[in-house]
TrEMBL record:
Gene3D superfamilies per UniProt: Naphthalene 1,2-dioxygenase Alpha Subunit, Chain A, domain 1, Rieske [2Fe-2S] iron-sulphur domain
GO-annotated molecular function: 2 iron, 2 sulfur cluster binding; dioxygenase activity; metal ion binding
Residue span, Rieske domain: 13-116
Origin organism lineage: Bacteria, Pseudomonadati, Pseudomonadota, Betaproteobacteria, Burkholderiales
Record carries keyword Iron-sulfur: yes
Keywords from the named record: 2Fe-2S, Dioxygenase, Iron, Iron-sulfur, Metal-binding, Oxidoreductase
Pfam families on file: Rieske, VanA_C
Protein's UniProt name: Aromatic ring-hydroxylating dioxygenase subunit alpha
InterPro entries in alphabetical order: Cholesterol_7-desaturase, Rieske_2Fe-2S, Rieske_2Fe-2S_sf, VanA_C_cat
């Protein structure tokens, strides 16, 4: 599935960047192949326009913010948050030409991030119930570009059969490669999947898991939100420490994405510092990234094309592919795949 070719994907919210980045002025971002400029308006809320001045096409992200409006860096045409041109400095006494406007997009702040939907969203921004709950602290762990497709990231995050191999240097049990099954609860926005996973728990992970046993258990209540957000709801029953991760794999184009990661913990800085938590997840993230960037980015959602083989533990990913295919069909679309790539090797 080539994400930039599936129009219905424009109708979801995606996390673009931390709000704090807007303190440095307007920022460019490419979402599903659409070049955007994001800035902070006079009310402190973020705004998103196409990154193209309607005078001579200069990127508005090269400009600056003045009184909450964005000013083009080329000749100073000025646009408000709705994209209407409100000032042409060279013609102060003439009316602004009718239709002098730049397309605008749905944009809002949530969980410390800027979220954008290119067309009327089908679902709200995924609910992170831990956010704002005094039992939890929020840690914005990272925001980085990966060279793969968001479906690969989503599938990997529910694929417990990769732990023993990709994460064998960390928590994976190489001698225990058969993963336990998930209980699935499909719903309007995707599904919830619950399971229990034994993990290697070396002494240096004590402050993360809160336990000292050589092997400990994770109780996972994970969620997938159509199309490319997920919750990793990890509880260590022996200590009742919660390590809840949310990711949004925001598609930049068909081959690249921006991965944002939030972490919620129910312990405090003295029990486990922010830096320890970031340092713990970093090598695990790098291991996932390394293998995912070594896959073909075009994951085919119509499995009838049989370009990949499957096994029992691929069930979450196969469910995602089926639900994505149903989403396309509901909106009158067919899957578009790489003409010269794996999708053509059908049957
Ligand atoms: Fe933007 Fe001229 S190109 S003002
Ligand atoms: Co992994």
């Amino acid at each position: 599935m080539l994400v930039t070719k599936q129009k219905v994907l424009r109708r979801f919210w995606y996390a673009l960047m931390p709000m704090s980045m807007l303190d440095d002025g307007p920022q460019p971002f490419t979402l599903l192949g659409e070049n955007l400029v994001i800035w902070k308006g006079a009310d402190g809320k973020p705004a998103a326009l196409r990154d193209r001045c309607c005078h001579r096409t200069a990127k508005l992200s090269k400009g600056f913010v003045e009184n909450g409006n964005i000013v083009c860096g080329y000749h100073g045409w000025t646009y408000d948050c709705s994209g209407a041109c409100v000032r042409i400095p060279q013609s102060p006494n003439s009316a602004i030409p009718a239709g002098a406007k730049v397309p605008s997009f749905h944009c809002q702040e949530k969980y410390g991030y800027v979220w954008v939907a290119l067309e009327d969203p089908l679902q709200p921004i995924p609910d992170f119930p831990e956010d704002g709950d005094p039992a939890y602290r929020r840690i914005l762990q990272f925001y980085e570009k990966w060279n793969t497709s968001p479906l690969r990231v989503m599938e990997n995050s529910f694929d417990n059969s990769h732990f023993s191999f990709v994460h064998k240097a960390n928590f994976g049990l190489i001698d225990n490669p058969v993963p336990s099954k998930y209980d699935f609860r499909p719903n309007d926005w995707g599904f919830e999947a619950e399971t229990h996973v034994p993990i290697r728990n070396p002494p240096e992970s004590f402050r993360i898991t809160g336990t000292t046993d050589a092997i400990t258990e994770r109780h996972l209540t994970n969620r997938w939100y159509l199309p490319f957000s997920r919750r990793f709801g990890c509880v260590y029953p022996a200590s009742n420490r919660h390590h809840i991760i949310y990711n949004c794999a925001t598609p930049i184009d068909d081959k690249t994405l921006m991965l944002a990661q939030w972490l919620y913990r129910n312990d405090d800085e003295a029990s486990c510092s922010t830096q320890e938590l970031i340092d713990w997840d970093r090598p695990i993230t790098n291991e996932d990234r390394d293998i995912l960037e070594a896959t073909e980015y075009d994951a085919c959602i119509d499995t009838r094309r049989r370009v990949e083989f499957h096994m029992e533990s691929d069930k979450p990913g196969l469910l995602m592919r089926r639900m994505l295919l149903e989403l396309l069909e509901q909106h009158g679309e067919e899957e578009v795949f790489e003409a010269s790539g794996p999708g053509t090797a059908a049957q």
